Amino acid sequence: MERWGGGGGLCPGEEEGEADWELSYSLLPVLYMLVFVLGLSGNGIVIFTVWRAPAGGTGGGGWRSADTYIGNLALADLAFVVTLPLWAAYTALRFHWPFGSVLCKLSSYLVLLNMFASAFCLSCLSFERYLAVVHSLSRARLLRSRRAATLLSLGALWLLAGLLALPALLLRDTQRRPPLNATVCDMDYSRVASPEQERYWLGALSLGTTALGFVLPLLLMTVFYCCLGGAVTRHFQHLKKEEQKRRRLLRIIAALVAVFALCWLPFHLLKGLYVLGWLGLLDLPCAAQDLIVRLHPYATCLAYVNSCLNPFLYAFLDLRFRARCLRLLGLRRPRPRRPSASLSSTASAQTQKSELPSLATKV
Question: Compositional bias (Low complexity) spans (predicted)?
């Protein structure tokens, strides 16, 4: 969001070579607006599909709490991507913020809120999918309790994300920064700490954000999806006809974890190295410090890309969700209704037989 540079622990003369940033001033706004367009349309379609779905669930087959998590994930991403035109203009203006203190605080808060809410939604979604497999294998039917648990977890998720994002709302503000005397939107620790203590506030908030918003959720997702992959593998190992479904599901599982990690890892890694160098805990040569500062905006942009990839990874790869979306958009004919009276007993008898082989489309 902001351009790092200046201050204790970093090499002098960072403001020299301003011409080296010319490409960033032109390229980054284009990338931000591309993420804005894709994220706005993709997440908008996901929210439209989830909230227009009937009580029976997306695409038939009953209500799934996974759809609720997908909808909330899209909502978090959508709340963030609407701020990207501001950050695009901020970068195009050479990191000058002309939009005032209120928008600086609010847009910064939404960025951090999205990071926490997305990570928590994905963690809950991975846990829910693991439970879906376990419950399917044991033929458990706890629909009402799962709905209540989903609503409770969503409330706790948003409350925790909102609280953890509060430092951005309280401490972010506009400041005049030399030598260009530009107005930047950056953290201001002077309200809570002396100049000697500011670096410790920076370290605690930055490393704490990385631990709670990336490391812990990624660890939980990895554990849940490994357990899920093991359960699916054990289930399908004797069902040759379902081998293709098993491979497809495991590929989706691997993509979910890998894309989240790849999009956010460079951002958190560079931020961690920068903070450790700022605190004097890591002795980095000047060339390495300069490289970290120059790569940071691109790592931030890569992290933002995750918000426009989520609709495809967490929704459109789900066959039932995709079918429901296409029907709502008028791109697929509605599924014809079957006479329930004459087939009710047959469907009931076949449910248990087909329940386990259809696991790949339920998760």
Answer: 339-349
